[in-house]
Amino acid sequence: MKVPVNIARILVGMLFIFSGLVKANDPLGLSYKMQEFFEIWGIEQFNSWTLLSSVLMNAFEIIAGFALLLGWRIKLFSWLLLLLILFFTFLTGYTYVTGKPTNCGCFGDCLPITPKASFLKDVALTILIGFLFWQRDKIRPLFSPGVSILSVLAAAVFSFGIQWYMLNYLPFVDCLPFKKDKNIARQMKIPAGAVRDSFAIVFIYEKAGKQYEFAPAELPADLASYQFVKRSDKLIRKGNAEPPIKGFALSGTTDEDSTQVVLSQPYAVVLFCENFSIPISKWKDDFEKVYTTAQSKNVPVYAVTTQLNEARENFASTSFKNIQVFKCDYTAIRTAARANPTLYLLKEGTIIDKQSYRRMGKIVDEIKPLPALPPVMMTQPGN
User: Fold this and answer.
1) Structural domain harbouring 88
2) Would 192 be classed as within a structural domain?
3) pTM here?
4) Four-point Cα dihedral 304, 310, 313, 314, nearest 10
5) Do the beta carbons of residue 272 and residue 184 sit within 8 Å?
6) How far apart are CA 273 and CA 279, in angstroms?
7) Residue 172: is it exposed, middle or buried by C-beta count within 10 angstroms (0-12/13-18/19+)?
8) Are 17 and 128 members of one domain?
9) What is the per-residue pLDDT across 236-279, written as a single tens digit (0 to 9) for each?
10) pLDDT tens digits, 282-317
11) 178 belongs to a structural domain
């Protein structure tokens, strides 16, 4: 029994470490996925706790997987892993049965898997962890208690440290559609070869208090004895005809769509600032340098937010108070900016660079070597 136990221990430990690391690359992504579940269940009041829960869950997966590989405190971690996988199996089973949300986010945006595959994966893990729980007395520590404690402590520091870095400096691996070298306008189009949803026309009739569905070619001979209810389009095959970027539309107070104007600029700097939870005082000076450098090259600078009035109030006392401010759907901003705020440098809608508010100086260095644009090129959209 020792060999099967060790094989199962290594498989489960490595998978939990891998799962935790993939999600630790983008803690906000898991946080937003949790909010999707809370919105479906009608408990949005817990949304403010999702980021903390995401960080703790990712860290626990890494720490627990590492502890399992070391065989450290196996009785404690076998219980914790069993409870966690039962919870995960419930979530993935719920997603598989209901189709809501469409993706459970088990491996983040970098490795999207279908709800069915995710559920079956968790069922298999439940069996393996159940086996380890049953045979936990046969698992022995690999090292002395002191070495094990230091090793697990190092794993904990690493798991929390890497997430702090990702939240402040953007994910190390960008798996979102707004990644560098991608053209936003093209990402807003349905990919070539995508399969559209297929629908079939059905007619619904009622007879003797019971409703029946008929295809046009299958209407009954005694149709006159039925009462028509309605005509409907029935989905018979789900396609994948969705653009990578959805909901990205920029408009000002007049609601005039200025998206293409911004994306057609030879060069443009775009500040994505969903809200002002990070005080402007923390990044104002760095952004002023970006704004001044861009102006010296006649490169237009825009701000994109969900809070137009708050943006104008916060910008009023700065050197960039006249910056063009647009509103945009919060989901699109969250996808574009995994740090709040995030700064983009665009070339005709293609993302040349993007940095969090802590590294705005890198955008300054990108702008300096650019050729100065003629003032006439600075097309300013309407407010």
Assistant:
1) 2-169
2) no
3) 0.84
4) -70
5) no
6) 11
7) exposed
8) yes
9) 776 666 899 999 999 998 889 999 999 999 999 999 999 999 99
10) 999 999 999 999 999 999 999 999 999 999 999 999
11) no
